[in-house]
Request: fold
Amino acid sequence: MEISRTVCVCIIIAVATLAACTGEQPQTFEVVDHFGVPYPDQVIDFDLKAPVKDPANTAMHGPDGSKVQCQIIENGTKVAVRTDLPANATKTWTLQPGEKPIVTADDVKVTEKGDFYQITNALIGVRIPLGLPGQEKLAPIQGVRYRNGTWTVT
Reply:
């Protein structure tokens, strides 16, 4: 299927308009090895030129152009990624506002919900009672969330 030149121009204009409306522009980050030394897999962070306003709608694209996991840290002023760096190599990432980030099972969320903590990731979750004064003694885990989103206990 061939995309016409007009359609490509319209897509480019739409993306530019979206970035202008959100007030955020893509930011690019690069690491370079100048010493001929390979670096092991590790977490590195980059200072942002402008703070991220909406981490839930900001995605990081890795050196191959595909989305990669990242974490917005220090009140939106830095972004962290996990990478290695071969000897004499260069790697570049682009932080793209207006895109949903990659979500994996590693994205753990802890929230307090009434009288229990809820700990979840993309695959499963558990509910643990807070043990508040006067609260009946309950089992250590009060519910398990299945992959389809349903809980064993409500």
Notes: Residues 109-145 form one domain. The helical segments are 5-22. The chain has two domains: 25-97, 109-145. The radius of gyration is 21 Å.
